[in-house]
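Hi P.,

Sorry for the delay on this. The queue was packed all week, but I finally got your sequence through. Input first:
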Amino acid sequence: QLQPVESGGGSVEAGGSVRLSCINSAFTVCEDDVRWYRQAPGKEREFVSGISHWGIPMYTDLAKGRFTISQDNAKNTVYLQMNSLKPEDTAMYLCQICSRYWGQGTQVTVSS
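Then the structure:
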């Protein structure tokens, strides 16, 4: 089954950092972007950042300047380094592969 596996979330104080990981089991199957989304309670899921099969990153305005996406092809893993975290970054962060497969998500909680 082509389901990504996320990890790395946790609880941090405002201004802190976390690094999320997404194991992409479909790296050799599809060449779609790997994308990070997030969903906070009561809010719609929103796109955060993505990286193309060839390593070209893309960022939304909420991620620019604070988040960095990267990939390690040898480990089939995409990372999302998140710095200068704010309480409003609190959400479940989910990885999407092949434009349709979702992981279970990893929770990030930022306290003020």
